Amino acid sequence: KKRRFDKMIYIHRTTNVIPSKVKEYNELVQKFLLLMEKYGIKLVGSWQKTIGESWEYTHLTLVEDLATLQKNLRALGQDQEYQKLQEQMSHLITRRVIKILSPTEYSPMK
What we know:
This protein is about 35% helix and about 30% strand.
């Protein structure tokens, strides 16, 4: 049986974007997600809210396990391209919620 830290980890990000900045956000987030992949954080899917505020985006990424996530986030934090993208995106968003999730025993996504 796998220990808690051995499980695949999912990162669920929900971001509210300033409506007039949606195009710029989408351009930057594509670069951001490509950069994350270099650090072992892979995109599962991205969604734009269909009913309600259409400037809300959800991105689901995954990483091998919690230890890998922690190690790679430290390295990512030192990446100058990442720092630049974070700075640029900070002016486009009004709210961001990040959740770190692990699958249940009965989840088809392990």
